[in-house]
Structure formats: C-alpha cells, structure tokens
Amino acid sequence: MERLSKLVSTLASKGAPVVAGGAVLAGGGYLAGNAMYTVDAGHMAIKYNRMSGVGSTNYREGIHFAMPWFERPIVFDVRTRPHTMASLTGSKDLQMVNISLRALAKPDPAKLAEIYRYLGLEYDEKVLPSIMNETLKSTVAQYNASELIKQRELVSRQIRQRLVQRASDFGILLDDVSITDLSFSPEYEKAVESKQVAQQQAERARFQVLKAHEEKKRTIINAEGEAKSAEMIGVAMSNNPGFVELRRIEKAKEISGLLGRSANRMVLDTDSLLLSLMDGSHGTAGSGGEHAGSVHFVDTGSSYQEENKGRGWLGWLWGRK
Hints:
This protein is of the alpha+beta class and 321 residues long. Helices cover 52% and strands 21% of the residues.
C-alpha cells in the first residue's frame, strides 16, 4: 500500500508535463498525416478550403501538401470509363426498337471544380443515363425501321454528335459512342423475312419469264435455220438429182460402220441399210433389180452371208438348216 501511494503521488507531481508531451506527439502525428497526400496515376485532385471553398487549381500525380484541417484534397478518376445504356424506343413508322449504346466517358480536367460543386464525384451516374436515353429516343424517332438498318453508321454518327454536345454542358468528355445492339419486335422481324422471301420469289419468277423468252427465241432461230437448210437441200436436189443418191450412200456407210463394230447378230435387208440405190428408175444393164429385197446376215466369222447372198429369206433359212 505504501508503494502504491508513493507511485500515485509521483504521477500527481509530474502529470502535467506527461500530458503535455502526449498532446504534442498526437498533434505532430495529426499534422504529419494530414499535411501531405498522394495523387495516384490516372487521377487528378483539387482542394477544398474551409475559408474559400473549392479551389480551381488541379494537382496531378505525385505528393502534394495541404494545410491540416483547413484544406482537404478531392481526388477525381480522370481515366476513360465505359457506360452502357439500353433503351426501348419507337421509330418514325411506329416500330418498337431495342437499341443499346456504349459510351466512353471521362471528366473534363478544366471543369473539375464545377463538376464537384454541382454534381459531386458520382457525376457520371447522375448525368449520362438521362442524356443517353434522351438522345437515343430523339434520334431514332427521325428514321424508319428500314432506315435504321441501312443507315446504321449515319445514325450512330448523329447520336455521337448530339451526345458529345449534351455531355460537354456538364463537363464530361466522350471519347467514343457506338451502337452495340439494334433489334426489333418479333412481329416486325417476321414481316421483314416474309417480304424478303416474296422478293426472292418475284426475282425467280422474273428469271423464269426471261428464260422462257430466250427459249422461244432459240426455237425460232432453230426453226428458221432448219427451214433455210430445207430450202437449200431442195434447191440442191432440183439442180443436181445425184445429191439424194450421195446422201443415201453416206447414211448407208454410217449404218454399216455401226453394225460392223457391234457384237450382236442381226438380219437386215438392203432397204434398212439404204443400199437399194439401183431401183427401177436408176437401174443399169445386167442389174434387173437383183439387189432389191435381198437379205444380209451380219455375223463376225460366219460364211452364211456369202453363201445365201441373193436368195432372200428362204435361202437364208435353208442355209441355217
């Protein structure tokens, strides 16, 4: 008990200097911790002063100093960040369009003080959804559904120009704006598909008509050619009677050549071979129409053809026996 009483009396006599030392150390630590701050890469800071408010000076990456308690840093992320917006809007011809827009946004470094004063650090969440939706609806309403598909690049460029202008009023810079998705209602898509099928069928029918016309022209040309050929043959026959005999000989040679290459055995008369050239009107002395109606037996390696030549059908049958 005596030791405890002595310790209490000692602290009571020296308490004031100890408390003062502790206060000095605590104050020094507070000043050291709040007198310096660091701005990371991709960020930018401004200062808020309790006496003058938000300052207009920007502080880039690195270590900076501030008056403790009187000043505090406000750090902005000035890197580009993506923002996606989907909207259901109507076209000029009253078709519902599902359109998605993607924008790359960042704050304007020259307007950080105004952005913090009027919008705060969540400036993008407060501004971009409303202006993107408004711009999409106002732009899409100027085009028909078919024009939105055919002129998608023009629509995207017009949306970008309007959105950049609207965002600049709030101190927001847009690096890129693009349409990521553009779709219509299922009923409209089915109607477009049916229209395309009908157009393809019409094109096919038009092709068939053109083909029929070409076939008709070809038939007419072939008929004219055949008529001209018949006319020329008639003139040749009237001028030269031996023309017909020459054609018969040519056809007979062609038929005999085909039969000679065939392995089948068959019986033909001279009329079938077109060899009955010496008829009553063109007979010569000693012929007497001997070859008219005679039979020819075609068989490779057979001797019936020579033995029964000129005997007719009965001679051939007799020779077979």
